[in-house]
Amino acid sequence: MTPFFEIRNLSKSFGGLKAVNDLSLTVEEGEIMGIAGPNGSGKSTLFNLITKIPFGPDSGSVVFRGEAIENRADKTIARMGIVRTFQREAVFASLSCVDNILVAVEQTGGLRGAEAEKRADEASDIVGFPRNFHNIPAAQLPVFYQKQLMITTAVAQQPTILLMDEPASSLVDDEVDWVHETIKRLNAMGMTILLIEHILPLLTGVSSRLLVLEQGTPIALGAVKDVIRDPAVVEAFLGK
Ligand code: ADP
Ligand code: MG
User: Fold this and answer.
1) Which domain does 126 fall in, by range?
2) What GO molecular functions are on record for this protein (predicted)?
3) CATH number of domain containing 73
4) Does residue 58 sit in the same domain as residue 176?
5) Would you say residue 240 has pLDDT above 60?
6) How far apart are alpha carbons 115 and 106 in whole angstroms?
7) Among 9, 58, 139, 178, which is most buried by a count of CB atoms within 10 Å?
8) Is the pTM of this model over 0.90?
C-alpha cells in the first residue's frame, strides 16, 4: 500500500550548518505527530522544506500519497492539502482579519467573492475565531487572537495535513488549553497534524507519536510513552 506521507533522506544546509540532515520518516493518515527538540534542532526548517515556504530541500524527497512534491511550487503544495502555520504570528498586519483569510482562500482554493467569504466564515466558526473581529486590522489583535487568525487562515485552505509550528508559544494557561482542545478537534475532523511544540504537556497530551530532533537528525521516533523515557531524549532535553 502507498504510504500516506513520506519524507525520504531530506537535507538542508546553511553554509556549513546541516539544519536538516538526511531525515526520513513516514506519517500515517489521521495521526498527530509531535515534534520536539532543542532550539535550532531543525524543526521549523523541516516545515519549510515540506511546504517550500520559504524554501525547499537541497536533496531528498517529500512524497504525499505516492506523489513527489518537493519540486512543486508552494501554492501547489498548499492546494494539494499540505498547509502550515508559523512560529511567529504571520499575519498581514495592515489587512483586516477577514482579508488575511481571503488572500489564502483565493490563492489556495481559487475561490472568489461570496464563495470565498463563506469559506472564511466556516473556517472562523470551526476554529472559534470571532466573526466580529473580521473587519479589525490584524495588527490590532492581541497575540492569542493573532494565533487564532493564523490557524483560521490555515483551516480555510482545507488542509489534509496541517503543520503547526509552536501554536502555543507566548500563550498563558487557558489559552494553551484552547490550543490543546483545538488541535484535538481539528484532528477529529480528519486532519493529520504535525505539531512542533515546546510545551511538553501539550505535546505529549495530544500526540500519538513523537519525533525528537537534535542538530537536524532524529534521535527518537515512536510512541510517546517510549520516547519520553528514551535516555538519548532525556539527555538532549536536560543537557549534557
Ligand atoms: P528550530 O525550529 O528547531 O528551533 P530551525 O529549523 O529554525 O530550528 O533552525 C535550525 C538551524 O538552522 C539553526 O541553527 C538556525 O540558526 C539555522 N537556520 C534556520 N533558517 C536559516 C536561514 N534562513 N539561514 C541561515 N540559517 C538558518
Ligand atoms: Mg522553530
Assistant:
1) 88-158
2) ATP binding
3) 3.40.50.300
4) yes
5) no
6) 10
7) 178
8) yes
